[in-house]
Design brief:
The chain is of the alpha+beta class. The chain has a single domain, classed as archaeoglobus fulgidus dsm 4304 superfamily (archaeoglobus fulgidus dsm 4304 fold), CATH 3.30.2170. The chain has six helices and nine strands, in the order βββαβββαβααββαα. The strands form two sheets. It has a seven-stranded mixed sheet, sandwiched between helices. Strands 5-6 form a two-stranded antiparallel sheet. A hairpin with a 3-residue loop joins strand 2 and strand 3. Helix 1 runs parallel beside helix 2 (85-92) and helix 3 packs antiparallel against helix 4 (120-128). The radius of gyration is 15 Å and the shape is globular.
Length: 190
């Protein structure tokens, strides 16, 4: 695997549930070392267009031909605006890797979906796609799903693009930019 592999990391900006929209930031990086481009878009909080917005970000960037993989901070953006990782892979032909720092509580997630959405079964079905794998790091484990790439290859890309801590730089940088734009200064962990 090339050290300078081009990765698009995507994360959402901080929001409140009083907001209607949420900014989504993409960071195109070479491995975990060099930021080449920042992309931005918007999604509806708890909407259903996160997959198509990610697809547009990928298709419209001038770096499209050089991208080799997309990393998402979790499988949902803007609350429960869930990304269909299989559809995103199939429509872009780019492997998709989701990274989650904390182990998801699927019972609570399913209850929240059931309580708040008429289409909760569709959202749940989309959220369930892909096998959740635990990936050990030097610090804490992370939880990974992938589409279009084996878990072994995903681990290699994660290791290649993680400088410090457990979150790969493309996601970490997207998070810093998103929170800096929204709050005036970046904060917290991706």
């Amino acid at each position: 695997m090339k050290k300078q592999i081009r990765i698009l990391g995507i994360d959402d900006a901080p929001f409140t549930f009083n907001d209607k929209y949420c900014t989504v930031i993409g960071a195109v990086m070479r491995g975990g070392e060099y930021l080449e481009c920042v992309l931005s878009s918007q999604i509806t909080i708890d909407g259903d267009e996160a997959t198509s917005v990610c697809k547009e970000m990928i298709q419209n960037t001038k770096h499209r031909q050089q991208l080799k993989v997309v990393m998402l901070d979790g499988v949902a953006l803007g609350g429960f605006n869930i990304v269909d990782i299989n559809e995103l892979y199939e429509s872009t032909n780019l492997p998709i890797i989701t990274i989650t720092r904390d182990k998801p509580d699927f019972v609570k997630i399913k209850d929240a979906l059931r309580k708040n959405f008429n289409d909760w079964q569709e959202r749940w079905k989309t959220l369930e796609k892909g096998e959740m794998c635990t990936v050990e790091t030097r610090h804490n484990p992370i939880y990974v799903k992938s589409a279009g790439i084996s878990i072994e290859e995903a681990k290699e890309i994660i290791n290649l693009s993680t400088i410090r801590g457990v979150i790969p730089e493309p996601i970490r940088v997207a998070h810093l930019i998103a929170s800096g734009i929204t709050r005036g200064e970046s904060y917290g962990e991706a």
